Amino acid sequence: MTDLPPPLNDGHPPLMLSKSARKKKMKQERYAEKKAMRKSAEKERKKRDLERRRREWDEKLAGISEEERLILLNERKMARKERMAMKMDEKEEKVGRLMKAREEGGQKVVVDMEFGELMEKNEIHSLVHQIMYCYAVNGRCSSPVHLWLTGCTGEIETQLQKIPGYDKWIIEKENRSYIEALQDKKENLVYLTADADVVLDELNPKDIYIIGGLVDRNRWKGITMKKSQEQGIKSARLPIGTYLKMSSSQVLTVNQVMEIVLKFIETKDWKTAFFQVIPQRKITEADAENVDSAAVEVDYVDDEEEEEEEVEGKVRKKKKKEI
Ligand SMILES: C[S@@+](CC[C@H](N)C(=O)[O-])C[C@H]1O[C@@H](n2cnc3c(N)ncnc32)[C@H](O)[C@@H]1O
C-alpha cells in the first residue's frame, strides 16, 4: 500500500467547525433527512400501487363469467411466460457478450478495490452499489469491457459477496492487487486519475485502464496519482476540459468513469460520452463568448451524495433479481 497523505481533517472531527464546514454539515444532514423521507414516501406509494392493482384485478374477476375468467387467467399466464422467455433471451445474449469480452480480448478495465481502509462503512456500501451499476451497464453494452475487480479483501469483499448473483458475475475477481495479478503487463497499466498530466486521447486496446475504487468525497485528494507514481505505472486523465468547462473539480465517480469508457468504446467520441454520462444538472450553458460552442460548464457538486442516490435508485430496481 502506498504512503497515504493525511486526510483533510486528519481522521478526527475538528473541535470547532469552520463556518463553511458547518454549512456543509448542515447541508448533508438536510440531504440525508430528505433522502429518508423520499425513500419512505416511495415505499408507501409502491405499496398502495400494488394494493390498488390487486383490488382492480379481483374486481375484474368477480364481475365476469367462469368462462371469461379462465380466458383472462390463461392470457395472463401466457403474457408472463412470454416476458420470462424474453428475459432469458436477453440474459443469454448478455452472457455471450461478456464471455466474448473475456475470451477474445475485450478492453481490460480494472477497478482497484484496495482502498477499503480509507472509507467509512457507508462509503464502501456506496462503492459496492457503483460496482453493481458498472456491471449492469457493462452487460448491456454491445461491446462490453473485460472487467477486473482487484484487491478485494475485508469489508469490501464481504459486501461484494452479499450482492445477489455475484458468484456468477462474468468478471475477474481478485484478492490480489492489480500490480501482482497483472505483473507481466505492468507496462500496459494506465491509472485513470483526474490529477494526471497526460490527457487520454484514445483507448489503446492493449492497455489496461485502472479506476480507483474510492468514494471519498475528495477527502483523499491525489491518492491515485501518488499510487501510480510510486508503482511506476502510467497515468492519464479523461479529456473533460476539452469539451466541458468545469466550475471546479473534474473528479467523477467510479460508475461515471466506467460509463464514459463504455460510451467512448461504442461511439469513439468523447463529447458524446461526456454529455450522455455526466448528469444534466451539472451542466450549464457556458458564456458563449469565452467558450467554444461545444464546451459547457459543469457545476461540480463537491459531495458524491447525489450520484450515490442516483446509483442506488437504479440498482435497487434490480436488487431482488440477479444483476
Ligand atoms: C471518486 S474518484 C476518487 C478520487 C480520489 N481522491 C483519487 O485521488 O482518485 C474515483 C476514481 O474515478 C477515476 N476518475 C475520476 N475522475 C477522473 C478523471 N477526470 N479522469 C480520470 N479518471 C478519473 C479515478 O480512477 C478515481 O480514482
UniProtKB/TrEMBL annotation:
Zinc among keywords: no
Broad enzyme group: transferase
The record's listing under Gene3D superfamilies reads:
3.40.1280.30
What keywords is this UniProt entry annotated with?
A: Methyltransferase, S-adenosyl-L-methionine, Transferase
The biased composition feature labelled Acidic residues covers 301-311
Which is one GO molecular function term here?
A: tRNA (guanosine(9)-N1)-methyltransferase activity
Ranges of biased composition (kind: Basic and acidic residues)? 28-54
Provide the E.C. number(s) assigned to this enzyme.
Answer: 2.1.1.221
Instruction: Give the record's GO biological process terms.
Output: tRNA N1-guanine methylation
Q: What InterPro entries does the entry give?
A: MT_TRM10-typ (IPR028564), MT_TRM10-typ_sf (IPR038459), tRNA_m1G_MeTrfase_euk (IPR007356)
Keyword Methyltransferase tagged: yes
Record-linked PANTHER family: TRNA (GUANINE-9-) METHYLTRANSFERASE, TRNA METHYLTRANSFERASE 10 HOMOLOG A
Q: What is this protein called?
A: tRNA (guanine(9)-N(1))-methyltransferase
Q: Which organism is it from?
A: Zostera marina
Source organism phylogeny: Eukaryota, Viridiplantae, Streptophyta, Embryophyta, Tracheophyta
